[in-house]
C-alpha cells in the first residue's frame, strides 16, 4: 500500500497559527501516532480545539474523525471550548486537598460563579481543577496564567485574580 | 495548562535573558560556591531573580574566587528559596523572604565574612538522608551537559559500552537487586533480561521511560527530571545498550512544563555530545530518544495504557500477557521503567551491583525517594535507605507535626495505596512490609495526616479520583468505583446504615479481584486500609451521625430506631 500523501493539504484558513500546526505535523512525518502531539500544538496555538481543527488534523494524519474526537475527549488536558482570557488552575491533589484546596474551589464558585471546568460569564477567567501539579510542598497550590503560587488562602487567591 | 511548552524546545529566547542566566564562574578554583536551587518549588518563590541578584552582588563585591551556579532540587521545598554553599557546609533557607535569611548574610558568607545560614551536618533533615538518585541533584546545573560530564556523568555509559557486554550489564543490574520504583517493585534485572532475550520486532526494540507521575501527592519524578535529566537519559542509554534497543521515548506529564523543557534541552545536548542519537560514543550503537507529552489521564501511568498513548490513541489498558517486554510499542519488545529506576542505573553500573545491594534491606535494595508532604514541618523531597522506619522519616527527617497537632496517619502509594496508623509507625519502609500493612510503596508520595483529617473523607477523596480517572474500558472499575463513591458519600453525610458498609466491602473485594488494570485493582485499597485501621470513624458516621474530625457535612437522616440496616436496603 502506498503511503497516503496527505501532506500537501491547504490549511482551513490563512490564519498564521495554522503554520505552527503544519510545522509540527511535518516534523512528525505526518505519522498517525503523532496525533496527541499535534493536538497539543493546535491547542497551544488556538487555545482550544474546534471541529475545524480536529477535522483538519485528522485528514492530514490519516486518522478518522471518530478516533480524533475519541482522543481529544479522552484526555482531560484537551478542551473543545474556548477558554477565558486567563486561566486559574486549582490543584486538588492529596496534599492540597487536606490543606484546604476545597475551600479555594468553593470560594471561586461563590465569587466568580464558575465551577472547575467553567469560564466566568464575562469570559475573563477559566477555572480549572488539576489532579496534582506536583507542587505538594507548597500546598495548596494554584497556577494563574502559568505562574505557580504556593500556600494560597482564599483571600490571596482573589487578590491575585483581581490584579489580572 | 498554558505553560506547557510542548517539545518545541528551541523557542527563541532573547539572548540578553540567556546571558543573564549564565552562572558566575570564578577564574581559579572556587573558595566558595553558591548553589541556587532552580526546581519548581524554589522558582515559584523567586529563585531565578534571586540568582541574578546574587550574581550581581558577588560581582560587585570584587570577589573573584566565588562561584554562583544554578542547581536542581535541594530537597527542603518548604524552606525555599534555598541556597547551599557546599564548601562551607551551609544551607541558606527562605533566602530574602520574610523571616528567612537576608541576602546580605549569604553574600558575607561567600565573600569571606562571618559564616551564615544553617550548618548542614546538624540538621536531621539533611544528615539522615542517603543520596544515590539525588546525588547530583543539588550539585549540577540541570541545563548544562558539561556540568554533568564534569561531575562524572556518562562515565557509567562509557564503562558499560567499552568494558562490558550487554549481558554483563544485565548481570550487574540483577546482582544489585534493584526493583521497579514506579510502585509495583518488579525486579529490574529480570525485566531487562526478558527484553534482551526477546526477538526484535519489525522496528527493533524500544526503551520507554515512564514519567507520567500521576499519583496526587507525588513529585519525585518531576524533581529528578528538573534537577538532573541527563542522569535519566544515561540510565536509558545503558538500558538500550543492554537490551539491544535503538529507539526510546520519555512519556511525561503535561502538568510538568519545566521538566519537559529541561528534558528536551538535555536530549538535544546529549545528541550534540554524542551520548545519544546516531553512533553513540563513536560506536555502531544508535539510540534516539523522543519526548511524548501526556494529556492528563492518570490511567496512562499503567504500562499498556501508556504505550497506547505513545502510539497516539486513547490511553486504555489491555490485558496482559503479552507483556510489553515481549510485545509493546508497535508489537516490538519494549522495556518500560520508571524515572527513578533509570536514575539509579548510572551509579549502579559505575560502582557495582554489590555496592548498590549493600544499602537497604534483605529484599528491598538501595534507596527510595519520597515526596514528604501534608501536615509535617519539613515538606519536600527526601531520599532514604530502604528499611528506615516511618517514625524516623516523619519525626526525624520530617521534623514532626506542627505545634499542638496530633499524628493520625501516613498515606503512601496514592490512590492505590493505603493509610498507615500511628501504632505501625515503627515498621520499616520496604516493599514487603508496606504491602503487609495494606498499603504499597507506590511511586513515593508520603502524605502525613493529622487529627484534622477524616479518614472516611480521605477514602472518598481517593475514590472520587479513581472514578473520574477510570478509563471506562472494563465494567468493574467503571461502575464499581462510581458505586463505591456513592456509598462513601452516603457514609460521609451520615445517611448510611450498616447495610451500606457491608455493600461497600463486598464491592471493594469484587472490584479488586476483577478489574482489568492496576487502577481498578488498586482503587479499593484506600477503603480497605481505612476500614482496617479506622473502622471506628466509619462507625461514628454510621451509628452516631458524627464526623469525629469535624470534616464531613453531616445531613443526618434521623436514625430508624433499632435498625440501621434493613429498610435502607434498596435506597440510593
Write a compact overview of the structure shown:
By secondary structure, chain A is of the alpha+beta class. Chain A is 43% helix and 12% strand.
Give a quick account of the main beta sheet of chain B: strands, pairing sense, barrel closure.
5 strands, mixed
Strand content of chain A: 5-15%
Give, in spatial order, the strands making up the sheet with the most strands of chain A: 2-3-1-4-5
Summed over residues and divided by their number, the pLDDT of chain B gives a mean of 92
Greatest chain-chain contact? A-B, 47 and 60 residues
Report the uncertain regions of chain B. 1-20, 558-572
Number of domains of chain B: 4
Residue share in β-strands of chain B:
5-15%
How is the topology of this model organized?
The complex is a heterodimer of chains A (164) and B (572).
Chain A: H1 17-27, H2 35-46, H3 51-61, H4 65-74, E1 86-91, H5 94-98, H6 101-112, E2 118-119, E3 125-130, E4 142-144, E5 147-149, H7 154-162
Parallel strand pairs in A: 1-3
Antiparallel strand pairs in A: 1-4, 2-3, 4-5
Helix pairs in contact in A: 1-2, 2-3, 3-4
Chain B: H1 15-21, E1 32-37, H2 40-44, H3 47-61, E2 66-71, E3 83-85, E4 90-92, H4 103-110, E5 118-119, H5 124-127, H6 145-150, H7 155-163, H8 166-176, H9 188-197, E6 206-211, H10 220-227, H11 229-243, E7 247-252, H12 257-272, E8 288-293, H13 303-310, E9 334-338, H14 339-350, H15 353-357, E10 367-374, E11 380-385, H16 390-397, E12 407-412, E13 418-421, H17 431-436, E14 445-450, H18 455-469, H19 475-492, H20 498-514, H21 518-522, H22 525-533, H23 535-543
Parallel strand pairs in B: 1-2, 6-7, 6-9, 7-8, 10-14
Antiparallel strand pairs in B: 1-3, 3-4, 4-5, 10-11, 12-13, 12-14
Q: Which properties best describe this structure?
A:
heterodimer; A: 164 residues; alpha+beta; Glutaredoxin; five-stranded mixed beta sheet; 5 strands; 43% helix; elongated; B: 572 residues; alpha/beta; Rossmann fold; Ubiquitin-like (UB roll); 4 domains; 13% strand; disordered C terminus
